[in-house]
Amino acid sequence: MEDKIKTVVRICGSDYTLVGSESEEYMQKVCLYVDKKMRSIAANPHLNNVQVAVLSAINMSDDYHKVKDLQEETAAELKKYKEDYFAATSAGKRLKDENYALKEEIQNLKIRIAKLEGGR
Question: Which has the closest alpha carbon to 33: 73, 60, 6?
């Protein structure tokens, strides 16, 4: 069983005790991100704590979906690059084999020419 790590974090002036399998540094980093988002929205004095939390969640969901979309686009590009790489590698091998066969054919033709010239 994994050891659980317990850490206390502060978000918008309130302390929260977190327990998880991630490192304390990671949990602090995640909570710092939440705290910054919430503080930037809480700067509006017309919002209550629930509104700040909901708007922060919406903002973080927006961030998440933009990064997810970018990751999916990047994965699709990487797949295309891999396909292009394998196609180019395959074409390179085919051309190398063809080059070898042509060199062999040239050598055989040189031998035939030499034999024909020697027979005169």
Answer: 60
